[in-house]
Amino acid sequence: MQTRVYAAPSAGAPLAPSTIDRRAVGPRDVQLEILFSGICHSDIHQARGEWGKAAFPMVPGHEIVGRVTAIGSEVTKFAIGDLGGVGCLVDSCRSCTHCGEDHEQFCERGAAPTYNGTEMDRATPTYGGYAQHVVVTEHFVLKVPTNLELSGVAPLLCAGVTTYSPLRQYGCKAGMRVGVVGLGGLGHMAVKLAAAMGAEVTMLSTSPSKQADAARLGATEFGLTSDAATFKRLGGRFDLLIDTVSAKHDYNAYLRLLRPFGTMVCVGAPPEPSPMAAFSLIGGNKRIAGSAIGGIRETQEVLDFCGERGIVADVEVIAANQINLAYERTIKGDVRYRFSIDARTFAS
Ligand code: NAP
Ligand code: ZN
Ligand code: ZN
Predict the structure, then answer these.
(1) What is the pTM of this model?
(2) Smaller CB count within 10 Å for the chain: N or C?
(3) Domain identity same for 21 and 152
(4) Is any atom of ligand 1 closer than 6 Å to the C-beta of 8?
């Protein structure tokens, strides 16, 4: 079937309306009519060719929530009319060690990303969620709680799981001091989720204008990182830092905020490398770590966690023809705190 999309024709070119083909629904496939699609900063990095490998035309979008409009004969998890979600992955080998342990993002054969990659045949390009419809194999379609505002559910499929996963991995719990660096799409989910897990959360931001929001989202303290005094005041404070910053910044400065044996997890993926001194880790037995999205089991877990607690992303709903403007605003840090595209507007 044909579906209307917004696509980047080449690296850095504005996104424009276009039409693509989606495959016919196979026995294990689920077809979604997309309702909302979030704009992740990773969409911008990739549409602008900032991470190197990029295939064009590119239809970004890996925060997808929609309504099931067709299912294959062997599908058991979904019925027509159900809600469904799709995140950053649309397939993997499902037989390697990592797939077997529910870490499909680390599939030994290379998982199929939702866009800017290929299906497991290594030939068919994948196109993402800035579209009216998508067809995905059942295992990679998530169950969506029915009690949440759907525009704010879409971002849970990437921003949600990407912050939930390291919070779980590093044992976020009541009494833990967690610092979240960067208040954007990922950062605001990190604050909400860490606070919901009972942690004492500090927001570390370059934007004084976001202080009141940080408190509303669940942070009990705010540190302005453009002020050197903040790094003195909060030195040695945190058990865990979740760094969501999208641009080059000084990791050494943030490592000084950890208490001994503390961990800083990088989820923000700046295109440019940033030097890190061994001494930033040695004094205090500190750790710096990375974390990539989450597997399908963990993505379902964050959706269920948010469903039970009534947590959604704070979104600004936009029409498809505002995507390029939304990219500019996101780069400037002017998003409160995720853009969510009303997918009905891809039709016009
Ligand atoms: P976003 O909404 O643009 O938020 C990024 C925030 O970082 C900004 O709002 C800003 O917050 C802060 N920031 C920006 N430039 C900065 C600078 N030069 N110095 C210090 N802080 C700065 O982006 P997002 O969608 O949350 O994504 C964040 C990053 O995570 C991106 O690089 C994205 O590609 C990456 N990502 C990684 C994964 C993964 O699997 N690891 C998954 C999804 C996204 P303040 O105004 O508060 O300072
Ligand atoms: Zn993303
Ligand atoms: Zn695998």
Answers:
(1) 0.98
(2) C
(3) yes
(4) no
